[in-house]
Amino acid sequence: MNPDVEVGDPLSNSTARLSICQADIDNMGDDNPRLQVKELLRKEGNVSRRDSAVSLNSFVEDDQAKKLTEKRRRSSVQSFNTTQQQPPKREKIHKRKLKKISQPPSLLLQLDKYKNDAKKDQNNDEGDHVRFPFKNLRSLVLDVFKASPGTRLKWCSVGNGEKIPTVCVCFVPGLQLEQDAKDDMEQQKPISNLKKFDELPFIYDTFPTYIRTLSPGNKDSIHSPLQTITNVPLTKNEKKTLLDQSKTDKITIRDLLLSQRDLEEHNYPLQLSNDLWEETQPPSTPGESHIYALDCEFCKAGNIHVLTRISLIDFNGEVVFDELVQPAEEITDYVTRYSGITEELLEGVTTTISDIQQLFLEKVSSEDILVGHSLESDLHVMKIKHTKVVDTAVVFEHNRGPPSKPSLRWLADKYLGRSIQCGEDKGEGHSSIEDARACLDLVKKKIVEGKLFGKNVGEVPIFQKLTKNPNYSGDFKSLWLGYSQVKEQASLNEAMNLTKLNLKSDDEIVENFVKEIPSKKFAVVTLRDLEFNSQWGNSPEYYTGDLDYDIEKSMKRTNDRLAKMYEALPDYSLFICYSQSGDPREMFRLQTVRRNYQRLEKEGYDVTQLSSEENWPFSKKELLMEKTALARESLTFIKLKVPEN
């Protein structure tokens, strides 16, 4: 009892207890009330039951008072720390939902619900011949990895997609499998509707159904399915961000070199046609290389173009040589409006194309880089093979996109603010030196502005989108196996967590697939044995695979490779096998005829003098559309690898 508090004060007991701090209690010694209570409790015989109860109650009240003090102290601290929050409560998962998420992944195709949307997507009039658009396969990949939030697939349902360890898309062009023509409206059909080949047991034993697919493209051309699957359209905000970032990514002129596929696609000379052709040779000093810009002017000798002027300038814009050429053929049209060449200008000129070839080979080695606009035409007329090329008609894009090409005059006006080829309007023709300098300046500006400068930025690599996907936690790694000898930008692939290998045969591709796939989430693979042996395209020089042109043997080899790849995939992986099944060769031939006809017409040639093979009447236009529709016919096989019990 505190002696300073009067007896009878109603607050005396509680006030006395609250006024005693721990230090006071410690200093009391034997007068400590808690010790006194403890001592009284020990003396059972000397303390009455009532006194013990009173002393114990006092001790309990002391303890309650202490707790009250602590509570007030905590309240006071919390009042100064208003930002402190209570830990979130763990959400209680319903039993039904818990059971659902504990199930393995699943995939259910529902193409019957998607039929009408697919018909609209084709944007053409094909009656009942509805096909499944190829780009939906890209949507499936993005959906599995939750990389396209807010979108929902109408044609399939993926359950617990986050548990799918790997998605593999395999391209196998050339599976020309005969189909049952009945029920043409059906996109998804049982595998039994395909004529069975003994060389393809993997296809028939693994996939219960197949999907009749439409390759990407339009009425008279096919777009690359590989580019469609590996590129994702961007939103407006994504485009702006990408362009800003591109300016900070440094590139060199070697990043703009045409790839082997580019050279093939744009009809660059890749072999010596006859003894009149020459090829650039290695430099006398190993490792030495230069950059030149080239432009030529042509006249016509009958149905062919002949070289009449050639200009070569160095990287500083200085003229290396500028020569007029007297062709061996008789000129029938000087095309002065474009070439600037007249009969008077060539009078007395004795320089031949052979002289030009030797002069060119003295200046330009196989390691030097040629810059120009649609240089395939110049090299063909010069009869020169050279593969290190930067083509401003390719590295810059037309507003409409491929296959349209921008004109050099338009590029110079848009990106250099420069008017060139003004002599065309006066009938005086172009200046090859002026055009060569414009090409060189365009390339220089592109190197400064970044690789996306002059491109229709609308897409981003799917590998980049998946790697930077905020809805996926973990180290996302991708694999890309295909054919090419172009050196990739290592830093770009590293940024996308992408292992990209350019190989020389299907066997090499499968071998590397088996080795790399255990650590990868997404893979894109191309097998081309069937394509090359079906002679749908020319195999590259570096190709080391079988070329026996025996379709049955090629099918068997392809079947075995697909089986090995499927076996190497982890359980519950998603395997997508896509094959262009329509023969594209006649479409390619007609496209070449059309391209040559349009070029001659643009250059002012009298197209009425062309032969029936070279002409482009309306009937050929209709035939091209027919052959393109056939070439776009494709087959898709989809399988979730469920382990056998």
UniProtKB/TrEMBL annotation:
Pfam families per the UniProt record, alphabetical: RNase_T
Main location, first listed in the record: nucleus
GO cellular component term, pick one: nucleus
The UniProt record lists the keyword Nuclease: yes
Keyword vocabulary terms for this entry: Exonuclease, Hydrolase, Nuclease, Nucleus
A GO term for molecular function: nucleic acid binding
Localization (cell): Nucleus
Renumbered residue ranges of the record's region Disordered: 66-99
SMART domains per the UniProt record, alphabetical: EXOIII
Superkingdom field: Eukaryota
Family: Belongs to the REXO1/REXO3 family.
Name of the protein in question: Exonuclease domain-containing protein
Lineage of origin: Eukaryota, Fungi, Dikarya, Ascomycota, Saccharomycotina
